Amino acid sequence: MRRQFALTIFLAAGFIILSGCSNTDARSQATEETIEFNGVSRKVSELSEDTLQWIEWYQSLPEEQQAALSFVPSSFDDNRYTAAVENGDEEGTAGQAEMIFYPDSTGYLEALSEEDLIETEEIARYYFTELSPVYDGVEHIEPAEDDNPLYQNVGIEAEYTVGNIIIYLVETGKDREEGNPVRTISIARASKSDEWKVINSGF
After folding, report:
1. Is the model more confident about 194 or about 32?
2. Which stretches of 44-190 are assigned E, i.e. beta strand?
3. Which residues contact 167 (CB under 8 A, 6 or more apart)?
4. CB atoms within 10 A of CB 71
5. What is the CA radius of gyration of the chain?
6. Residue 203, Cα to own-chain centre: how many angstroms?
7. Among 16, 39, 148, 153, which is 20 to 30 Å from 1 by CA?
8. Is the pLDDT of residue 152 over 70?
């Protein structure tokens, strides 16, 4: 009877140990889940919550809107990711917030004061009138919508945070006469204490 009782306890203990190992394996497997974007795979555990939310938002877009976005989260940019690891961040860019636009976040225009809008529009008008007189002045100017893909232009516009950049759509006298499409001009500053400057312009 004692032997049977001892055997029962032994089997029960073995079952508990195996169950614990199984649960540990399941948690480990979940941690190792990966996400692929832009031809690059990353473990979910390596990605910040902001990045995961952005990926989810991106995947909800129609294909044509996805194709229009050139923005690549830093966690999926091999050059920036490798540099972060080499600088001592063993998890690469994990935990770093992505400076990108979300439909439910503070918009680019909303983040600017009335004084900012007046000053940046004056800079845009000066650019196409005084600085580059070949454009023959400004016929029409208006701020671009917050979801304009140019805000996600990697290496230029995407490097500036909300509240420090604005893009204008401009019809110049020259373009109206020649039937050209509306131009864009991007005006930004490094921080709120810095001066506004033109960082990009074109069709």
Report:
1. 194
2. 138-143, 165-172, 183-188
3. 108, 143, 144, 148, 150, 151, 157, 184, 185, 186, 187
4. 19
5. 26
6. 23
7. 16
8. yes
